[in-house]
Specification:
Layout lengths: L16 H28 L5 H24 L3 H25 L7 H36 L3 H84 L8 H23 L4 H22 L3 E5 L8 H22 L3 E8 L3 E8 L6 H7 L6 H12 L3 E6 L5 E8 L5
Parallel strand pairs: 1-2
Antiparallel strand pairs: 2-3, 3-5, 4-5
EC number: 2.7.13.3
Protein name: histidine kinase
Catalytic activity: ATP + protein L-histidine = ADP + protein N-phospho-L-histidine
């Protein structure tokens, strides 16, 4: 058995759905029980109208049960509304006819009250309740005479039905609002998750861009410079050494690329640590490009691999800037730590520049390498500073608290 719906629709997964199902089931059971009471009364206390009462009561039960079929058959909301109104009118007329035959049918007005409110809405439903109450009172007065119970009973029933029905509708509206709010929250959560995923992708892209800039790009730049040097070599002194260094640099870059695929840890750090990796670069790639780099980093200093990787990349980017822009002859890389914090410094004796002026015109101070270094240091919770003056070299300094990356 089912009821055709009107305005109030409930989402299938609402937390209050069991309550609504229970109320509807109780209404169906109440209607069937009261109709059965009319039939039993007609059979137990036979009269000349008993046959008609039983037949009409059964017809009323069948018509009531057809309500669910009517609701499912109608495809559109307007058709369901029209079919529901026609169905309600039919069972109301059958109830009035049954009420004309037996006063026991007056009890059926109570479940009808809820149907009126559910299908006709607050105002038309209330009007229908008033009319049905008047019909029930008149029928009881005609059949058994006018009594206080015959008048007060239907009036009290109508009042209770109004209170319960209106409360039911308020509960339904609240459930619908909560369901809409839940759907909105789920949609917002989905958008937030998508935004976080997008942010993670962008952060990963930026990280890879920094890794590639500080390793592959700088290495390829070194290869290019070495090969140019080989091309310009004195014919009597073939550029075999330059070519060898270019090949070694290419091999290093290939190792870096493979390491990116695995875990983005620099190959030199696995065996040599930060100090060994910097000294290898100083004696090989950097020296071949004409820069004498002094490394003062103790191999006994134990730092997390994440921090060693970041400092190595910062040094590679800074030295690449020195070679390309500063025209320096010497540079020094040092690491000082007291167990609580550390200071990583790259100093060169190059041409220097005005950091404020460079920032204003988007020049060297704002180069991608330095920008990437700032991002690395920011992620580690440290501070990167650049000190430079024209003609007096440049100092790049990184200050970090070890506890921030422990």
């Amino acid at each position: 058995m089912g009821l055709p719906t009107r305005k109030v629709r409930f989402m299938a997964h609402s937390a209050l759905t069991p309550v609504f199902v229970g109320l509807r089931t109780g209404l169906h059971v109440l209607f069937a029980a009261l109709a059965a009471l009319v039939i039993v009364r007609a059979v137990v206390v036979p009269s000349e109208r008993s046959g008609a009462v039983v037949a009409l009561a059964i017809l009323l039960l069948v018509s009531y049960a057809l309500g669910g079929v009517v609701a499912r058959a109608a495809r559109s909301h307007s058709r369901r509304r029209l079919a529901g109104s026609a169905w309600l009118a039919a069972i109301t007329l059958e109830w009035i006819a049954l009420l004309w035959l037996t006063p026991e049918a007056a009890y059926l007005v109570f479940p009808l009250f809820f149907l009126y409110l559910h299908l006709l809405g607050r105002w038309w439903g209330s009007a229908a309740i008033v009319i049905a109450t008047g019909v029930a009172i008149c029928a009881l007065g005609i059949h058994g005479g006018w009594t206080v119970g015959g008048v007060v009973g239907p009036l009290v029933g109508a009042g209770v039905a109004l209170l319960i029905g209106l409360g039911y509708q308020a509960l339904a509206r609240e459930a619908q609002q909560r369901e809409a709010l839940m759907q909105e929250l789920l949609a917002t959560q989905g958008q937030l998750a998508a935004t976080e995923r997008e942010s993670g992708v962008l952060a990963e892209r930026a990280r890879l861009a920094r890794e590639i800039h500080d390793t592959l790009a700088q290495g390829l730049s070194s290869i290019q410079m070495l090969l140019h040097a080989a091309e310009r070599a004195d014919p009597e002194r073939p550029g075999v050494e330059h070519i060898r260094l270019a090949r070694e640099t290419a091999a290093d870059n290939l190792a870096e690329a493979r390491r990116f695929i695995r875990e983005l840890t620099p190959p030199d750090l696995d065996d040599n640590g930060l100090g060994g990796a910097l000294r290898r670069l100083a004696a090989g790639q950097w020296q071949a490009q004409g820069l004498d780099v002094t490394v003062r980093v103790s191999d006994s200093v134990e730092l997390p691999m994440q921090l060693q990787t970041a400092l190595l990349r910062i040094a590679q980017g800074a030295v690449a800037n020195v070679i390309q822009h500063a025209h320096a002859s010497t540079a020094a890389i040092s690491l000082e730590t007291d167990g609580v914090g550390l200071r990583f410094t790259i100093v060169d004796d190059g041409a220097g520049f005005d950091p404020q002026a460079a920032d204003a015109r988007g020049g060297r101070s704002d180069s991608f390498g330095l920008k990437a270094a700032r991002e690395r240091v920011d992620q580690l919770g440290g501070v990167l500073s650049v000190e430079s003056q024209p003609g007096r070299g440049t100092t790049v300094r990184v200050d970090l608290a070890l506890e921030s990356i422990a």
